[in-house]
């Protein structure tokens, strides 16, 4: 049963966008837990495809090859009660898709117009069947432009670099913070300037700066808006 005001729509859609390290995935996951609805990490879907492309030694500059790979790849997100697991063609790749190599290349794969269309179709199909919290970079204006609630999470580049560095270190990777900061900045530029589904703040999105608040603070802000209807 929903713990918030019914909207009158067949399914509830909460869209959350933002750059790398702003905390959107953590916040979106907590929102889904609180409301008892499905969480979809669209970034993980692009990461899984990027991981497969790297494993398959696909030429990332060859649009036709990437498009064919996207159409032939089965990506599944499952919540086993202990967090979201990501499966690519039946293989659990939850850890592998967070590697620095995948992080460096995922925006290249995500910039491919045909790849994005394949992914967007998959994401929209999920939202037609279930109430969802969906996060990414183009959810509010491309994937779910009719979402009842739209949010844009952001934070300073320094804070986002620190968070991503801590995440990588916790996974056992050595981190050069100066290089990581440059990579995140470059990814921001690629995401904002791509032709299809760019990272942007829509006029109807609520902007939440997480530079000085923790995850729970952001969750409370989002839940307050959603539950007020």
Task: Tell me what you see in this structure.
By secondary structure, the chain is α/β, with parallel strands linked by helices. It has one domain: Rossmann fold (3-Layer(aba) Sandwich), CATH 3.40.50. The chain is 50% helix and 16% strand. It has helices spanning 24-35, 42-55, 63-72, 100-110, 113-129, 139-143, 157-170, 177-193, 215-228; strands at residues 13-17, 38-41, 75-79, 84-88, 91-92, 132-136, 149-154, 206-209. The strands form two sheets. Strands 2-6-1-7-8 form a five-stranded parallel β-sheet, with helices on both faces. Strands 3-4-5 form a three-stranded antiparallel β-sheet, covered by helices on one side. α7 (157-170) packs across α8.
Write the layout of secondary structure elements.
Blueprint: E1 13-17, H1 24-35, E2 38-41, H2 42-55, H3 63-72, E3 75-79, E4 84-88, E5 91-92, H4 100-110, H5 113-129, E6 132-136, H6 139-143, E7 149-154, H7 157-170, H8 177-193, E8 206-209, H9 215-228
Parallel strand pairs: 1-6, 1-7, 2-6, 7-8
Antiparallel strand pairs: 3-4, 4-5
